[in-house]
Design goal:
204 residues, alpha+beta, Aminopeptidase, 25% helix
Length: 204
């Protein structure tokens, strides 16, 4: 059974999204998301969907049976290290600023914690790379508890890279002070057995 979360986007709205691990039936929607928000290149869009579905751990946000956000991650180093890389994340343009990115990060942390625990290990640490000039991403990652630690010249074809890290509270043996809990008014909770997900978007 695919783990599923219910995310309500705000206190004064009935907008509810479903967040879960990606499955093969999401392929067409992932391709469409790439074509709509990245570039009109069918070949690259297909490769994007293939990478997310077959090469990485991917979490998606669903509305009306359509993928409107995705986050991919993978384990790095030995399993006993408890380290993952947040490889990539995106939310469709019309759905940004609704807390979906934050909910995806929270779902990633919960999924990784359970994955490591299943093997008797502890999830300790997250890192990611981003383009140095991406100010929107910089504000977002800071808001969900990441710390910018270094700059890597010329890592990308047209920009330098910045590395961001986060120690996961309760599982790190060193200083966990860089981590900030995900707080706010947009709760993410596990979907109950047999519970139906309302994907309406009527404002109250």
């Amino acid at each position: 059974m695919v783990p599923t979360w219910i995310y309500r986007a705000g206190l004064c709205t009935s907008t509810v999204f479903e967040i879960r691990e990606a499955i093969e039936t999401d392929r067409a929607s992932l391709v469409q998301m790439y074509l709509q928000d990245v570039e009109k290149d069918e070949k690259r869009a297909g490769a994007f969907a293939d990478n997310l579905l077959n090469r990485m751990n991917t979490i998606v946000c669903i509305q009306d049976s359509r993928v409107i956000g995705s986050l991919s991650w993978d384990i790095r180093g030995g399993v006993e290290d408890g380290v993952i890389e947040l490889v990539g994340m995106g939310v469709t343009q019309e759905h940004r600023r609704r807390g979906i990115g934050r909910a995806l990060v929270e779902a990633m942390r919960e999924t990784a914690t359970e994955r490591f625990a299943a093997g008797g290990q502890h999830f300790r640490f997250i890192y990611l790379f981003m383009e140095r000039g991406n100010q929107m991403a910089r504000r977002f990652y800071r808001s969900v508890g990441f710390m910018e630690v270094c700059m890597i010249p010329s890592m990308y074809p047209h920009d330098d890279a910045c590395m961001w890290t986060q120690s996961v509270t309760g599982n790190c043996s060193g200083d966990c002070s860089t981590n900030q809990p995900l707080t706010g008014h947009h709760p993410l909770r596990r979907k109950g057995k047999g519970e139906r997900t309302s994907l309406s978007q009527q404002q109250t």
